[in-house]
Amino acid sequence: IGNIKIGKKHSECKKSKIGEICWAAPAKAVYIIGHQKNTIAYLGSFLRTEVERRKTGTVKTTINMGNLVIATLKRETQSISLEELAEIIRGSKYMVALTGSGTSAESNIPSFRGSNNSIWSKYDPKIYGTIWGFWKYPEKIWEVIRDISSDYEIQLNPGHIALSTLENLGYLKSVITQNIDGLHEESGNTKVIPLHGNVFEALCCTCSKAVKLNKIMLQKTSHFMHQLPPECPCGGIFKPNIVLFGEVISNDLLKEAEKEIAKCDLLLVIGTSSTVSTATNLCYFASKKKKKIVEINISKTYITNKMPDYHVCAKFSELIKVADLLKGPKGSEGEKQESDGGATDKTRQ
Fold it and tell me: Where along the chain is the active site annotated (predicted)?
């Protein structure tokens, strides 16, 4: 299928850059392919859907297996404490964070899957979460956004404050996130790469007009959400600027994420189960580039003992302890590092 044949080694398949990888649903299974034990393919996580006729909802799906074959290297992931993590960060010069839905769990945002209260246990993802579902029932995804915005008190958690503090201290340079909630931006992180989009943006499907939204506009009582789907003055309908199942992540965003990882000497992988190919591919890219990887999660994940050098068993909110350790006494370790943009920051020792 695609660029690889069953029985062939990974080295014999045509490799593609991260920016060419398609993303859709999370993998349900991992299959061993060929003679190399560590050669794997995510089946079910690389559907590319091309909408041929938007008005009728006619779609065409193609599968490219070669783009999502990853040869993972066995690596012993060492468990470390928050205090040890602080020392690793202290020695870094360019740190990047890759975050997943686990960072939003403590902000009162329901998870998409994995529990009886998850979003997809209440809303059928085939109808509410796919691009073909959107073209047939464009109001459905807006219903999910409206209900979550109205029924849940969403707010920043200490982990968001920690990442903002780490940026202010000069350690954290950028955040690559799979989340669509905009909380990293709200907390004060200035360079955020939202791979899956941002729920606080909407695009007209007819004239491509972009609209910035806020929490009030997404409430049930707002004028914007009074009629679903929201309509553009041109007569078209708005689509939330998020990646639905069946859509492809922006190639520009993937290249930007890849560029940031290439520049870093430390990658924090926080709150992601790594079952979605996006996170796994970026971690693999960092591993190939010999970057130091620290996984921060309440449990071990698919990539543990494959790519990360270290694992910290902790909630996202516990990172505030690390930020406090790095602040240090006034006038010493905690002072800001001079930023790349030339801002007047104090030098980190």
Answer: 196 (proton acceptor)
